[in-house]
Amino acid sequence: MFNLANAHRSIRSFTSQDIDDSLLNDILMTGLRSSSSGNMQTWSVIVTRDEANKRRLYELHVEQEMVLEAPVVLTFCADVFRMREWIRVNDSRQSFDDLLGFLTGTVDAVIAAQTISLAAESVGLGICYMGTTWWAADEIIDLLALPKGVFPVTSLVVGYPAENPGLRDRLPLALMVHQEKYHCLSNEEIRAGHAEREEKAWARYTAVDSVRQRLAEAGITKVTDYYTSEFKYSKELHRRVSEMLLETLQAQGLWL
């Protein structure tokens, strides 16, 4: 388990080999055993194999080729709809149609997704999370016909790897783990703790001539410049997506 977790790499290129239905079901079954608040399991997953639907997801996930290459796309959703339907048929008092219900379902969904990811990797499959699920949540809801009370929170592409990338750099444990109380880093600790990330990530981003030229033309000289630029995660992107998410949460009955 330690070896599996410590060897994780995101896979973005896949072979044409399909995933057997029985194997996929076995992998998905591991998600059912994941930790869940109150054992309510307020999450669902949509399996996409159909090429037309994958093509639409490709468009919504900012045209990442791995969506088309991978045989399976899994969209994990916070799902209080199913819980509320169970309550309804038993004539019990309704609840969960609020921010707390949404957040509880989101945590449940992400825990299940990670369990399923590890199970997939344990049998030689590759996975990659797609944060772009948030960016197009409103349109994904329409595509997957999600009822009120269901909200997409993350997605995985799953398939047999056609690449063998090296391990990506990670921040040191000292930056991530706090003993008893949160420790705010000094400027010196911030610089020292991020030094390897600065060096390795910048080398990776500038390894491609066209990218290096675009960054130079934009006056981008540091990884932090890149992360907050129009090429990556601009403030405008955050503002636009945040506004859409609030509106969509309200439309899905998950915001009070």
Provide a brief overview of the structure:
By secondary structure, this protein is an alpha+beta fold. The chain is built from 13 helices and four strands.
Characteristics of this structure?
256 residues, alpha+beta, NADH Oxidase, 4-stranded antiparallel beta sheet, 13 helices, 4 strands, 50% helix, 11% strand, globular
Question: Would you write up a description of this structure?
Answer:
By secondary structure, the chain is an alpha+beta fold. The protein folds into two domains: 2-165, NADH Oxidase (3-Layer(aba) Sandwich); 173-235, no CATH class. The protein has helices at 2-6, 21-32, 51-60, 66-69, 81-89, 99-122, 132-135, 137-143, 173-176, 187-205, 209-217, 223-227, 235-251, and strands at 43-48, 72-79, 126-130, 150-159. A four-stranded antiparallel β-sheet has the order 1-2-4-3, with helices on both faces. The protein is globular and about 60 Å long. The N and C termini lie far apart (41 Å). The model has no long low-confidence stretch (mean pLDDT 96).
Rg, please? 20 Å
Written as H for each helix and E for each strand, in order along the chain, the element string is HHEHHEHHEHHEHHHHH
Amino- and carboxy-terminal Cα gap = 41 Å
Low-confidence stretches: none
Average pLDDT number: 96
Count of domain modules: 2
CATH class of the largest domain: Alpha Beta
Helicity level: 40-55%
Q: Topology of this structure?
A:
Layout: H1 2-6, H2 21-32, E1 43-48, H3 51-60, H4 66-69, E2 72-79, H5 81-89, H6 99-122, E3 126-130, H7 132-135, H8 137-143, E4 150-159, H9 173-176, H10 187-205, H11 209-217, H12 223-227, H13 235-251
Antiparallel strand pairs: 1-2, 2-4, 3-4
Helix pairs in contact: 2-6
